[in-house]
């Protein structure tokens, strides 16, 4: 056996057993040659099975507003894109969409939007409490940065989780691609969410311009420092309508490695097989589910709106209705020998933290 392969196998065996990897070892695994990456995926798959079981959790994604006041360089909803047809769903329509998701067998929904000033924290809180009274769904919010007061309002209204990716752990890169956001404020938001007892999701894009292996290593370590409950990782897909139109974009293989590393290092967190991975490669989500992922977030946004919510081009499911996607995803999950979970899919970490013992009572 080649020396490098032997070293890789030993390291995989070690990390499957105890999850301890130092920075150099994380870098070594990221740098492994493509033809050996399957070993890392297999190790992550083993850890996923042991820590999370064979059940895959579904979160129905409701994209409720495509307006955004920010100008992130990579995003198809950025403020400066002129002539983009935008929409807002009103609360009754959103509640209807959530009720429909529950009828389709979802136990959890993600309410996502651009940073739309029309949707104040008060309004989102109202949306959350209406969905909570109409359904038994767990609710994740993904609507960007708010003040502590704002996050508290939404949490008090019943929101269970919040997704806010840090996008990259490289400050300089963060600054270069976020002309109107601040890295420290982003991280501060993640601390506030934790403080408020949200189940916290963060994550990053793979393949941003200027990114190196070191960036990816730092991304994984930051997930660990933040002690996230969920990690969303997807390839950056250049959008022709943005200033990064000509960038190269992320590769599926590198993204799969990042998913696998998140599983190996963070152990029992929820990791989605992201839509962006499915958009880059027809089998992207399946491959992610076999490299550490245990969650899928099918779209439940009404079909006629989907076309107007494109962060990146070639997004999948644009012409499929929610019922179709629901069936499609069951097919994908069962074909992999896995099961669709019937549970809410709360964080497994939640229950082992004494500071959150009250939480436990309210979720049971
Ligand atoms: N390619 C891939 N992912 C993107 N996102 C935004 N724009 C793109 C793009 N062009 C991701 C960001 C954001 C999430 C909602 O979508 O990571 O946090
Ligand atoms: Fe707005 Fe989010 Fe897109 Fe940035 S990534 S422009 S905040 S929708
Ligand atoms: Fe939408 Fe497969 S998940 S068509």
Describe it.
This protein has a six-stranded parallel sheet. It has a three-stranded parallel sheet with strand order 8-1-9, with helices on one face. The chain is α/β, with parallel strands linked by helices. Residues 354-364 have low confidence and may be disordered. The relative contact order is 0.15. The radius of gyration is 19 Å and the shape is globular. The protein has one domain: Alpha-Beta Barrel (TIM Barrel). The chain has helices at 3-18, 23-30, 37-52, 91-103, 121-134, 148-156, 171-177, 183-195, 213-226, 252-266, 275-280, 284-289, 303-306, 322-335, 357-363; strands at 55-58, 60-65, 108-113, 138-142, 161-163, 199-206, 230-235, 295-296, 339-340. It is built from 15 helices and nine strands. The structure holds 5'-deoxyadenosine (5AD), iron/sulfur cluster and FE2/S2 (inorganic) cluster. Iron/sulfur cluster (SF4) is lined by residues 68, 70, 72, 75, 77-78, 114-115, 144.
């Amino acid at each position: 056996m080649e020396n490098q392969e032997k070293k890789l196998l030993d390291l995989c065996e070690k990390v499957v057993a105890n999850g301890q990897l130092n920075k150099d070892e994380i870098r070594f695994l990221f740098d492994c040659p493509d033809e050996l990456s399957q070993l890392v995926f297999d190790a992550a798959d083993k850890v996923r099975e042991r820590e999370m079981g064979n059940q895959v959790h579904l979160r129905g994604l409701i994209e409720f507003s495509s307006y955004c006041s920010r100008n992130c360089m990579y995003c198809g909803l950025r403020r400066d894109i002129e002539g983009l047809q935008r929409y807002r769903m009103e609360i009754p329509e959103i509640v209807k969409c959530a009720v429909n998701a529950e009828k389709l067998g979802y136990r959890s929904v993600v309410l996502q939007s651009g940073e739309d000033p029309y949707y104040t924290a008060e309004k989102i809180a109202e949306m959350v409490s209406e969905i909570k009274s109409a359904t038994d769904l767990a609710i994740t919010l993904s609507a960007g940065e708010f003040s502590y007061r704002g996050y508290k309002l939404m949490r008090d209204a019943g929101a269970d989780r919040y997704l806010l990716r840090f996008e990259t752990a490289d400050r300089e890169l963060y600054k270069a691609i976020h002309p109107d956001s601040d890295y420290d404020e982003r991280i501060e938001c993640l601390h506030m969410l934790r403080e408020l007892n949200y189940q916290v999701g963060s994550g990053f894009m793979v393949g941003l311009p200027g990114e190196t292996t070191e960036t990816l290593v730092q991304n994984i370590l930051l997930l660990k420092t933040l002690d996230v409950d969920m990690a969303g990782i997807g390839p950056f897909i250049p959008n022709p309508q943005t200033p990064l139109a000509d960038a190269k974009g992320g590769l599926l293989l590198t993204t799969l490695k990042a998913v696998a590393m998140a599983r190996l290092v963070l152990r029992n967190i929820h990791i989605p097989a992201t839509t962006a991975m499915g958009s880059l490669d027809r089998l992207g989500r399946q491959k992610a589910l076999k490299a550490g992922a245990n969650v899928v977030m099918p779209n439940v946004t009404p079909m006629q709106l989907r076309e107007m919510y494109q962060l990146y081009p070639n997004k999948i499911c644009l012409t499929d209705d929610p019922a179709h996607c629901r069936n499609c995803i069951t097919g994908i999950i069962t074909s992999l020998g896995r099961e669709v979970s019937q549970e809410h899919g709360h964080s497994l970490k939640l229950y082992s933290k004494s500071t959150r013992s009250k939480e436990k009572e309210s979720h049971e």
